[in-house]
Amino acid sequence: MATSIDASAPGGPEGIILARLDDQARWYGRKSKRAQRLYKTIKVVEIVAAALIPFLTGRAFDHKDAVIGGLGVVITVLEGILQLNQYQQIWTTYRATSEALTHEKYLFLALAGPYATAGIDPPVLLAERIEAIMSQENTKWVSLQEQREKKQAPDSKGA
Q1: Measured torsion, CA atoms of residues 149, 151, 153, 158, in degrees rounded to the nearest 10
Q2: What are the domain boundaries of the chain?
Q3: Using CA atoms, how far apart are residues 70 and 42, in angstroms rounded to an integer?
Q4: Distances in whole angstroms, Cα of residue 151 to Cα of each of 33, 74, 90, 123, 132
Q5: Helix, strand counts (H, E) of the chain
Q6: Angle (deg, nearest 10), helices 122-152 and 64-85
Q7: Which one, of 145, 111, 124, 136, lies nearest residue 24 by Cα?
Q8: Does the chain have fewer CB atoms within 10 Å around its N or its C terminus?
Q9: pTM here?
């Protein structure tokens, strides 16, 4: 659903731009935390499973081979999920984007950096710069997806 921007809203265009900036910084921050949590949880489970394999190998119990084999399968599946979903890359990319947006906000509010000598209206420059930051993040995301697809594509050479 498209929304219209009311330049006469409280804070005017500057308020709208800052609201978008805050909303986007929070969104990237939340998504970064979620990806970090998923990545670390999966890695901890992998580490525990990997540590259990040599520990259990020296023990005698029923179905030992099945349990040890099952742990190997769990490790393989979890690593595949990490590669498929790119949680670590998303975590770091989204965190960097959230921080860049926050940095941009404080430069704007202090009229520092590019805003100190802006040849155009500072809110207009802010809008352009935050859209550029988000566009760069989107480009990185697309690049990650393309790299993932290349890794997953079967090798068409040879057959």
Answers
A1: 150
A2: 15-150
A3: 16
A4: 26, 21, 17, 42, 29
A5: 4, 0
A6: 140
A7: 136
A8: N
A9: 0.78
DSSP tag of 159: -
Mean pLDDT, to the nearest integer, of 66-76? 97
SS3 for 7-57, per residue?
A: CCCCCHHHHHHHHHHHHHHHHHHHHHHHHHHHHHHHHHHHHHHHHHHHHHH
Confidence of residue 157 (pLDDT cuts 50, 70, 90): low
Amino acid at 9: A
CA distances, 82 to each of 51, 87, 90, 142, 143 (Å): 19, 6, 11, 17, 17
Question: What's the pLDDT tens digit per position in 3-20?
Answer: 444 444 567 889 999 999
Secondary structure (3-state) at 110: coil
